[in-house]
Here is the input.
Amino acid sequence: MNRYCFYVDGFNVYHALNDPLSYKPDLPHVEENKCFPYRKYKWLNYRKLAESVISSKDTITGIFYFTAFVKWKPSQVIFRHKQYIKALRSQGVETIQGRFMKKYIACHRCDQKFLTHEEKRTDVNIALKLFCDAIDDLYDKAVIVSADSDLLPAIKTVRKYAPDKEIGVMFPIGRNSYDLRENSDFRRIMSEKLLRNS
Here is the structure.
């Protein structure tokens, strides 16, 4: 029997589900769902997803969802995000908040500056939580649900200071990371069937 913790990079999963598999601007009549076939799974129940990828003998000691509010978007976007977080909490999923920072980027062609937003703290929050939970012996196996290779140092740090812990990855559908794949102890598959059932 193993104790599992899941660490979900919320925006990494969201963007994977929201990305079109093939964008064809010259075909405006194509239905949105055909261009964005996974968008319908955005309201994932991470409790159900976690339970689907472990054995019946294993237990879940924590599911952590890392996200940030997109405060510059219309209020209904923030409202839906808050409702989703409320739904996750009802399933025992703990939310850990990051934030967005304003950032100006320059166009390489015209040197004009444009305002954009950059998500901050999520990688650090995941890394710290993963490491602290290993030291506190909260899990035997951890699953990072992300394809962000910036999390590689966190895996290596846990391996150094808590070598008895196993760290696995579940890449959001359609995503991959060679670094995470090569440095993880195991992998779980995020298939469309798993999304549909969760």
